[in-house]
Write a structure and sequence with these properties.
Helix content: 55-70%
Strand order of the largest sheet: 1-2
Structural class: mainly alpha
Strand content: under 5%
Shape: elongated
Number of strands: 2
Order of helices and strands: HHHEEHHHHHH
Number of helices: 9
Radius of gyration: 21 Å
Length: about 150
Amino acid sequence: MVSAPPPAPPPEAELIRVARLARGLSPETAADRTPVRLRGGRWRHIEQGYTRRTPFTPTTAPAKTLAHMANTVGLQPEQLADVGRADAAEILREIKRQEAAEEQLTSGPTDPRVQMAVDILLDLPPRVREEALRRLGPEHRRRIEEG
């Protein structure tokens, strides 16, 4: 009996694989660096586009998982959108937006009171943090500066 060849990986899987290789990461190391629960074996299955069971079972990463994998290997949302994964691209845009906001909050003055305020903001859920930052817009900043 001749076994069927494995299916070709989906375009997003190949994109992830090439980006991971370009960073010099093993699937295990990449999986460890991903904030979602993911093991090296699952990373490999997603890159291959199938599990090793007979017969081959196609596998596709959920949007959230794919977005975090893409972020780990340095891909941009447009790259995911270009291979037909607009769902994951949208999540990756949000991941990158949150990372940029956190970076902005953590860089800057070292006054301990400022650091405490930054830490409090970082502990807030993203939606509440955005509201707090929005409320600290120009009109509130002037009020605070005036005393």
